[in-house]
TrEMBL record, chains A, B:
This is Lysosomal membrane ascorbate-dependent ferrireductase CYB561A3. It comes from Stegastes partitus. Transmembrane reductase that uses ascorbate as an electron donor in the cytoplasm and transfers electrons across membranes to reduce iron cations Fe(3+) into Fe(2+) in the lumen of the late endosome and lysosome. Reduced iron can then be extruded from the late endosome and lysosome to the cytoplasm by divalent metal-specific transporters. It is therefore most probably involved in endosomal and lysosomal cellular iron homeostasis. It holds the Pfam family Cytochrom_B561. It is an enzyme of class 7 (translocase). GO terms for cellular component: late endosome membrane; lysosomal membrane. Homodimer. One of its GO terms (molecular function) is transmembrane ascorbate ferrireductase activity.
């Protein structure tokens, strides 16, 4: 099979998993958890999983693989850089609104914030993401940033980008797990506990599996050097010509 | 600073984090959770975090970066391959014993197995690890395995290796989070709940942070192409010469 067909097979699988993750988390929050509001109630909390999964995982992962799409090659990189930055900014905004949803909910219910390991990992992922976005803008988009700095920081940007996605996935998995233990306690009305795997648990566990599968597809696309945008292949002199053109 | 010094700085940080993770999980299980036994009690469960963190994260991560140590370069690769396989086998055995500890504990207490998302992710990580180890042995160690197959499957082995580490970290974070909600409920004797962040919660949350930091150092070492064993750099003709020498 031609390499471009293999790439697009994986890329389309990533897009399909993106849609599946967003649909799954929306169905969980709306059908099983009662829907949405912004009034400090549990319905406000329901925005939290939807916005974190959509922003910190799905949009983030799609933004990360943008340069691998062959359609974006052989052209001026600047518009694609702007799209990468815009997708990541949207992902960051959704994540921050997702954090506001849970902080507001906790404050309205006098629940302490930031005590669980889930919250520590989630806040670390979002904080690193914010730093990464600002540093990325300053180093890779501002024309005054010197080429030597871009070459120096590109591997750090790539490594930090992958690490943030890993942290986001760990935060989502621990968050879904925690929420299911909170809400599926079982009672005398015949509601089943988490350990009896009622339909809601199967749906939310499956959401976790979809998130992990999506992350694996993103890492697969990122790890294949043949799918790197040609200007950033090591043998192409560390993308200097294009950066020179852009920084002029 | 010379590249080799930068490498060893990160490598030693990875080793220091390895020791910190193992010490931290042992202190948590022994000092705060009452120690160890193999009798179906909660003391048997205590082996579970110790063995999973030590096997599936610490030994696994150290096995993954072995080829990056410059000390192993410029020599026949076979002894280092055997050490890589041996470290990974030890990691796999510890992980499987760690799973036995929790299955036995559940069975003795009539608790269902494999219902939580934590357990789904953990069992997937261990199963993929077992498949990866057997496939690695068959493809990269058995002399009868053809060079074309090795070249074809090396990127898959590397991608799957990183994915398994990400899954392991997600499983550990969700497991520590879940355990703390189970055991730190607070009571009238003055025991503080998880949301009051008692010392045990700070210790176990810190264990989670150490695991994430260790994973990030491993990914940093793996992501730097300059630190790749020279025979596997793409410009060195996909490590064919050494594989030919080994398969003779």
């Amino acid at each position: 099979m031609r390499p471009i067909i293999i790439f697009y097979t994986w890329y389309l699988l990533g897009l399909a998993l993106s849609v599946a993750c967003v649909v799954c988390v929306c169905v969980w929050s709306s059908k099983w958890r009662g829907g949405f509001a912004w009034n400090g109630s549990g319905l406000q909390f329901n925005w939290h999983p939807v916005l974190m999964v959509t922003g910190l995982v799905v949009l983030y992962g799609n933004g990360a693989v943008l340069y691998r799409v062959p359609l974006t090659w052989g052209q001026n990189k600047l518009p694609w850089k702007l799209l990468h930055a815009a997708l990541m900014l949207l992902a960051l905004i959704l994540s921050i609104v997702g954090l506001c949803a849970v902080f507001d909910f906790h404050n309205a219910n006098k629940t302490p914030n930031l005590y669980s390991l889930h919250s520590w990992i989630g806040i670390a992922a979002t904080a690193l993401f914010a730093i990464q976005w600002v540093a990325g803008l300053a180093v890779f988009l501002l024309p005054c940033s010197p080429i030597s700095l871009r070459i120096l920081l590109k591997p750090v940007h790539v490594w930090m980008g992958g690490s943030i996605l890993s942290l986001s996935i760990a935060a989502c998995i621990s968050g879904i797990n925690e929420k299911l233990f909170f809400v599926l306690k079982g009672n005398t009305n015949g509601t089943l506990p988490y350990n009896a795997l009622p339909p809601e648990a199967v749906l939310a566990n499956s959401l976790g599996v979809l998130i992990v599968a999506f992350g694996m597809v993103v890492f697969l696309i990122l790890s294949n050097h043949k799918w790197q945008r040609p200007d950033s292949r090591p043998e192409d002199m560390a993308y200097t010509p294009l950066l020179q053109e852009e920084s002029e």
